[in-house]
Design goal:
- Helix 1 packs across helix 10, helix 5 runs antiparallel to helix 11 and helix 6 runs parallel beside helix 8.
- It contains eleven helices and 15 strands.
- It is globular, with a radius of gyration of 20 Å.
- About 35% of the residues lie in helices and about 25% in strands.
């Protein structure tokens, strides 16, 4: 059988994330083609067909999973559907990129990883911020030893969102958790990428807003999930870390970008990532103050990426490289980074935060993926 000229991609779940991240990435990549859409919301589905192009569309994910004219799927559905939809698509022979959190718990996420691996299909967790130029530069500095021995990681993700309903995202059965699974899990992922896997954590969550009103003023059932989360951790390589996030930090709107800060403190120096300035980092050595340093040109976009790093809003356009990495992994027959294994390991930590807070104890991280 001859391979198609383009990787034929379907999107399941056509809401804001698909529109913001994935569709622009597909359109930029000449090796990829958007061929099908799926969403249970018929009205939204029809709207997206008009916006994105006249492609096949259906309200049933099973139709996508069984369609031989589809090579790969990007899943942007509510959290509680990720596992079932992903397994159906993998069993239909599709490569899969899935939004975070990968599953509602580590067990689901590990199952998704094992299924993809057993079928030799490409799998990817949509951890967007891995692709920020500043994060890629921070990774290079850590791996090259430019900061000496990494001793400490610290991150803050503060957003100033309304206190109205999050829709399905505020119910445990559908979302699993709130800020922890939505925002802090990204920081868990790049903390582990930079510092090695976490071995033990002490975590906490809090809920400040009841969210009993929809944006239109109508009433709804109160929120069940957190809107603040934090953890202290120990890493396998000997470092320690402190991570904190909230969607209710007043004054941190910053034109929608919020406050996103991550730093590694090493024996020889410190380096800092900031989402608001993703094309530069802050660097300081002993006896110095942190100074802005531009990201090297070779890290502004992945090698071969069709994206012009000088075009568009810097805090947005790096997100399109998710699709470039996914398509490249399919074509090259290699693992995509970050894969389902990374998504599952981050989920193990997030699960442990909830356990730690419930039991008021330190928790050892259990993240065995095989068997």
């Amino acid at each position: 059988m001859t391979k198609p000229n383009k990787i034929r991609i379907a999107i399941i779940g056509v809401g804001a994330v698909a529109d913001y991240h994935h569709v622009p990435g597909i359109k930029l990549d000449s090796r990829a083609q958007l061929v099908a859409l799926c969403d249970p919301n018929k009205e939204l589905l029809e709207q997206r067909v008009k916006q994105w192009g006249p492609v096949k569309n259906t309200t049933r994910h099973e139709d996508i999973a069984s369609d031989p004219a589809i090579d790969a799927v990007i899943i942007c559905t509510p959290n509680h559907t990720h596992c079932d939809v992903t397994l159906a698509c993998l069993r239909g022979g599709k490569h899969v990129m899935c939004e975070k959190p990968l599953g509602l718990n580590f067990g689901e996420s590990a199952l998704m990883f094992r299924e993809a691996k057993s079928r030799n299909l490409r799998h990817m967790t949509a951890f967007t911020y891995r692709f920020a130029p500043s994060m890629r530069y921070l990774k290079r500095m850590v791996d090259s030893g430019a900061l000496g021995t990494p001793r400490h990681f610290r991150s803050q993700r503060f957003l100033d969102w309304p206190e109205t309903s999050w829709s399905w995202r505020q119910y445990k059965k559908l979302a699993g958790a709130g800020d922890l699974f939505d925002m802090t899990i990204h920081r868990i992922d790049f903390a582990q990428d930079l510092m090695g896997n976490m071995t033990s954590i002490c975590g906490a969550v809090a809920q400040y807003a009841p969210r009993t009103r929809n944006p239109d003023g109508s009433s709804c059932a109160p929120s069940e999930v957190d809107d603040w989360s934090a953890l202290i951790c120990q890493f396998e390589r000997g470092g320690v870390g402190v991570l904190e996030g909230s969607t209710l930090m007043k004054g941190y709107h910053n034109e929608g970008v919020g406050h996103d800060w991550a730093e590694v403190n090493g024996s020889e120096g410190t380096a800092v990532y900031q989402l608001k300035e993703p094309n530069s980092i802050l660097v300081g050595k002993h006896g110095q103050s942190l100074l802005k340093v531009d990201v090297p040109a070779d890290l502004l976009a992945p090698r071969g990426s069709p994206r012009d790093p000088g075009h568009g809003l810097p805090s947005t356009v790096f997100r399109y490289d998710l699709v470039y990495e996914f398509v490249s992994a399919i074509i090259e027959g290699r693992d995509a980074i970050p894969g389902f294994d990374h998504g599952a390991r981050a989920q193990a930590v997030a699960d442990a935060v909830l356990e730690s807070f419930e039991k008021r104890i330190w928790v050892q991280i259990q993240s065995k993926l095989e068997g």
